[in-house]
Amino acid sequence: YRSNAQAMTDLIGGQIDLMVPDMYTGMPHILSGKARALAVLDKTRSPRLPETPTLDETVIPGFEIVPWGGLSGPANLPPDVVSRLEQAVHDTIQQAKARDQFQKSGIDISWAGHKEFTMYVGNQLSNWTNLIKEAGITPE
């Protein structure tokens, strides 16, 4: 599917039996009863779906996928610019209005500075690269 919205349409219409939507796409349909949440992919239950178990506690112990996003810039971005952007983003997400807006979209905000985020992305790339190789997955 080219988008979660297209897949959700087919799920609700009965053309597919299962999908893994993001919270933004899935939550309205789950809350309306048009779709049913079977499990969450994080290691902890979602506060929005407290009755829905995690895959870790049901069928795949140790399983966890945490959706993430961040800001990126050119490799040669001056350190003072990085610092100013980092502070501006941090200050913004600390505001109740911003946090509320993200939560309404189904997004839980957490903070990592540029050094921690760079390490996290590197770890994710390494982990997923290894899993892809182990599974024998090749690009089409």
Describe the protein's architecture and organization.
The chain has 140 residues and is mainly α. 46% of the residues lie in helices and 0% in strands. The protein contains 5 helices and no strands. The longest helix is centred in the last third of the chain and has 22 residues. It is globular, with a radius of gyration of 18 Å. The model has no long low-confidence stretch (mean pLDDT 90).
Can you summarize this structure?
This protein has helices spanning 4-12, 23-32, 79-93, 96-104, 114-135.
Keywords:
mainly alpha, 140 residues
The backbone outline, from C-alpha atoms, is globular
Helix content: 40-55%
Number of strands: 0
How confident overall, as mean pLDDT? 90
- Counting DSSP H or I runs of 4 or more residues, the number of helices is 5
* Largest sheet report: none
Distance between the termini: 15 Å
Structural class by SSE content: mainly alpha
Q: Give the uncertain stretches in residue-range form.
A: none
Beta-strand content estimate: under 5%
Looking at how many chains there are and whether they match, the oligomeric state comes to: single chain
Radius of gyration: 18 Å
What letter string, H or E per element, gives the SSE order? HHHHH
